[in-house]
Write a structure and sequence with these properties.
Rossmann fold; 3 domains; 7-stranded mixed sheet; 9 helices; 27% helix; 30% strand; globular
Length: 399
């Protein structure tokens, strides 16, 4: 039996915990909690001192505690190994990983390790901590992963909530925890294609594995088509379209560095980047220029970040999507496909469809949704945690 300190939660939080939610959000009750440190293991109790859950403290954050188990437990190596074994077993059973060695091994709340993810990139692993509460327990996690998988190296990266403030210092976020370092650019496989990732630099490594299934879907649609990929980043969707036989792929991004990385991804797949188009600039402005030039496409894809700033331009999913849709539709052939994606957790599917509706009405066009997808099966989430279903990927036909 554990002897963890008891922390009283509000009646509303007790109700949410009884429904299986894994978070305690800061409120008047948590402000009266005893002083603790990130990573302290505590027992959450109701106002009658009845135990509800075992959790990790994260003082000072909006999510002030994250539930490890709805009930009693002991956070030790045996418990950690049990969580990791179950996560690996689920992926072995339910994932089709043919031609793929880049995917998520542990998805935070979905695998009972809230605030923590583990991604595999070839023979290396990348741990991402979205809460300081996991730092004291890294030896348990690293030890378990090393014993079960024997990776070449394990990296750790802390991902604070206000990542925008750290953009200029992001190179210091990642550190080697165990094993050998990865090369500057590590080649990994997804859907039989090669992508180059960087595990030591930047907030992101160059490949978003949650879109793997959606890139496979694009490959099924792209043959012979003219494809415009907005917010192309390192060109993962562009490579997928070109490899599937797209007539031409135009990749647009505000970052010249990312587009150079995209060209390298084309070359890594023996696709001549000179046969395709790479345009550096703010996407809305580029759309306007292309419309004036009479450009036309069969598929327009947009997967913007939830928030971005380029010069004086500011984009947010909740307010900018409709403008992008309105600007993109005049470039899309009748019967062409508009593929829109958002990873913004706070924008649900109903609100996202309203953004698409506003954009279509502004452009005087009709859109019909052919398919609605989310993240892949390695990004599983509990039914008690709807926030875990964050990715929205819609394929719509114009006309």
């Amino acid at each position: 039996m554990n002897t963890y300190a008891k922390y009283v939660v509000s009646p509303e939080t007790a109700r949410m915990l009884s429904l299986g939610h894994p978070w305690v959000v800061a409120d008047a009750y948590t402000r009266r909690w005893p002083e603790g440190r990130p990573g302290d293991v505590v027992t959450l109790v109701d106002d009658q001192r009845r135990p509800l859950a075992t959790a990790l403290l994260d003082p000072g954050e909006r999510v002030v505690a994250r539930v490890l188990k709805h009930g009693a437990m002991l956070l030790d190596q045996a418990w950690m190994n049990g969580r990791l074994e179950k996560a690996l077993a689920w992926r072995h059973t339910h994932l089709d990983l043919e031609g793929t060695n880049a995917y998520r091994l542990v998805n935070a709340e979905g695998d009972g390790l809230p605030g923590l993810t583990v991604d595999r990139y070839g023979e290396h692993l990348l741990l991402q901590l979205f809460s300081r509460s996991w730092e004291p327990h890294l030896p348990l996690l690293v030890g378990g992963l090393q014993k079960m998988l024997q990776p070449a190296g394990i990296y750790g990266k802390f991902r604070p909530q206000e990542t925008r403030k750290l953009a200029a210092h992001s190179r210091s976020l990642s550190r080697l925890l165990q094993g050998a370092p990865a090369p500057g650019r590590l080649a990994v496989q997804e859907n039989g294609l090669t992508y180059l990732v960087e595990l030591e630099a930047g907030l992101n490594c160059g490949l978003f594995c949650d879109q793997r299934r959606n890139r496979r879907d694009l490959m099924d649609r792209a043959k012979g088509r003219r494809v415009l990929n907005l917010f192309a980043y390192t060109g993962a969707f562009s490579v997928a379209a070109a490899a599937a036989g797209a007539r031409q792929v135009t990749s647009v991004d505000a970052s010249a560095r990312y587009l150079e990385w995209a060209r390298d991804n084309f070359s890594a797949n023996r696709i001549n980047p000179k046969r395709h188009e790479f345009v550096t600039g703010e996407c809305l402005a580029i759309l306007q220029q292309m419309a004036q030039a009479g450009r036309r496409f069969d598929i327009v894809l947009m997967d913007p970040p939830s928030f971005s700033t380029v010069g004086k331009s500011r984009f947010t999913t909740g307010g900018g999507t409709s403008d992008l849709v309105a600007a993109a539709l005049p470039l899309l052939e009748e019967g062409g496909l508009l593929i829109t994606s958002s990873n913004h957790q706070k924008v649900d599917l109903a609100d996202y469809l309203k953004e698409l509706r506003r954009g279509a009405l502004a452009a005087g066009a009709e859109l019909r949704v052919l398919a609605s997808c989310g993240q892949g099966a390695d990004f599983l989430y509990p039914v008690t945690f709807p926030e875990g279903r964050y990715l929205k990927y819609l394929v719509s036909v114009k006309g």
